[in-house]
User: Fold this.
Amino acid sequence: MEPHSREYRRAAEALLRERPEVRASVTAATTAFDEHRARAYGEIDADRWRSWAAGVKSHVLSHLDTYLEQAEASLRENGAVVHWAEDAEGAAEILRGIVERESVRRVVKGKSMLSEELGVNHVLEAVGVHVRETDLGEYIIQLLGEAPSHIVGPAIHRSLEDVRELFARELGTARDASPDALAAAARAALRDEFLTADMGITGGNFLVAETGTVALIENEGNIRLSTSTPRIHVALVGIEKLLPRLHDLAGFLQLTSRAATGQAVGNFVSLVQGPRRDGEPNGPEQVHVVLVDNGRTRALADDVAWEALRCVRCGACLNICPVYRQTGGHPYGWVYSGPIGAILAPSLLGLAEALPLPHASSLCGACTDVCPVRIPIPEILLAWRERAVAAGLVPATERSALKAYAAAAARPRVFGAAGAAFRATPARVRNALPLLRDWSAGRTPVEPSRKPFRALWQEGIE
Ligand code: SF4
Assistant:
């Protein structure tokens, strides 16, 4: 298989060449998300909250076996059916089993990145089930046949014009329909889907071990409907989503909302506590919770990368990342994009498959500054890069160039002579050199300083 690296670079280049408007859509949306996050952090003692949240998640992860057992017992006590999925095929098997036993023909889904990771829509459609995404952004990209571009805003790469055209074609709305009219058309189309669905599938933002509560945050009410209207509710929950106590959940609901969208808390919070009980007017007859590993245990055993499992999928690192902002998520080539995708991909996909996503970063550290659970993203990126070199996964030309650079940098005279030669080289020749050629193709060509840094330094300190 062709290395992932070239696919990533080519995909980014192709996207920006063929659809240059994506950069404007993504930048506008992520800038707004980040401004809301900054304002919301400013309303609380965010540093203190973030340290607390990082501590809770680290504690859970270092006692994961105990908390998983506790969560399983609590879920069963609530009347939920608990399933364990070791990988995507295991999860698919569980879903197919429920579909077959319960004669499920129609499914509505709430937004769930884990379901994207597991390819749930394909699994269900392959056995003849009609699947409808009900989050507005997910609904748009499902109609377009695309994957999500962002953890929180799956359709942020699409403009209002794109959606007008799509809905005119699919739902018969006017070509100049207002955003409100477009939302109303989607709502009307989805209402029938909720009322006729046999099963609702959601993710789970958190699972409280103490009480067996699956917590879901949203803004549109579609998750509330997906968990309560169909007769069966299936929640797909990554094993890293545990929290010890209900008390912890209160803090995480607020911090995650602030980091994701700048809200004090999402418009709707659903706390799923098992199936409908006698005398209750609504709710599902069955609740299934599928606890999914799919590489997480392997990640947990890694003494550097394990910290990525603290992630609450808020998207704040994507919103502030100067690399992600240029292209959105699609060129990353898999479900998790941006900084969190770049550190999770090697753990969950394998390093060779994930390269060069750990290189898709300027290491500016802005992601870590905003992360609500203080994941040291640049440190983990560097660890993956070092491992790629150690495993011989970096191209030979790059290794030779860096070896030559290291040899020169260790010899001041050679380094100075190389710098002088570079400065003396005519710009036309300089910008045709292999690395600079790529750089200069789309940017202002590199113009070296007339004096070397060491000379400027000497002048400065004399
Ligand atoms: S790494 Fe941090 S900032 Fe990024 S999505 Fe996860 S929790 Fe949010």
In short: The mean pLDDT is 94. The chain has three domains: 1-43+309-394, 47-294, 396-461. Residues 21-42 form the longest helix (22 residues).
